[in-house]
Structures are given as C-alpha cells and as structure tokens.
Amino acid sequence: MQNRYCEICGERPAEIEYIEVIRGKKRLLHLCKVCAEKQANGLRILVPEEESEKIEITCPECGTPLSYVKTALRVGCPVCYNVFEGEIKDLLKKLQGSSTFSVHEDLKSSEEKDLIVIKHRLKKELEKAVESEDFEKAARLRDEINEIDRRLKWLGSNPLD
Question: Computed from CA positions of residues 134, 136, 137, 142, in that sequence, does the dihedral angle turn out positive or negative?
C-alpha cells in the first residue's frame, strides 16, 4: 500500500486493508488507522506488527505459514513438524506435554507417508478448485483422494484425515 491515502478522509496515509462484507459482497477499502477504527464500530482491528513485515517461514510441502500454525494451533501437513520444529517446540510442550511428534514412527511404511503427503496436497488443490468453481478439476481431485484413501485403508492406516 505504498503512497496510498485513506479512501474515506483522503488526508492520512492508508495503513490498513479493511474488508467489509455486506449481503455477501466483499468490498476492500484502504484506510488510515483513525478511519478504520470508526468503520469498525468498536470491533477490534487487527493491525500487523512491525515484526510481520519480515519474511515468514512457510512449509515447502503445503505452504502453511508459521503464523497460521501459531494462531490456529494446527499444522498443514506432517512435513510442517520438521520445518517449524525450532519455532513450535515450546508450543508443542504446552499443548501435549512433550516437544516431539511421533506420527512418522507410528506409520508402517514410507509408502504410507508418501500417500498422506500427496493426499494433503490434493486436498489443498481441491479447495482451490472449488473456490475457483473449476468443478471438473474438483471432481478429478476428489476421485484421486478417494483412490488414495482406498490404498491407505488397504495398507491399514489413514491417519491425519
């Protein structure tokens, strides 16, 4: 939002992207902090901290950002545990009493691990296909996920569903 001014007052620099949803229609406004507070009618505005402008760590497998893991307390895929290991060790300890994750030890084969990662990737693609209303692609992805589920069932495991 470089060199933009508030779309309401036009006087101060726009620092906040304010999304308003009315009757199912989204409207994006670029506002200064003062006008954003007024627009929000007392609701809390989430203003990004200076820290968030740093490059964020994301999982190379599923694309989940570290900030999501910390706020949602969920990872995107099994690979996330290795990628964010240093960053979420204390968080894991608080949540489960241990700072280690052992799903890989519980899986019976590397084929199962591979299928789970592929299934996760396909689920993300399916969500995007549905959002973009590409239903033909969505149906194909659904069928691929069902096939992976059948293979995992045959192998005797379907964790992380």
Answer: positive
CA distances from 58 to 1, 15, 16, 62 (A): 23, 25, 24, 8
Q: Which residue has the tokens 């890989």?
A: 104
How open is the CA angle 58-61-67, to the nearest 5 degrees?
Answer: 25
Count of residues in the chain: 161
Dist CA 66 CA 78 (whole Å)? 14
Query: pTM of the predicted model, to two decimals?
Result: 0.34
Please state which of the ranges 22-26, 30-34, 112-116, 157-161 shows the lowest mean pLDDT: 157-161
Both tokens of residue 80?
A: 């996330």
pLDDT in tens, 18-48: 777 777 788 888 888 888 878 776 665 655 5
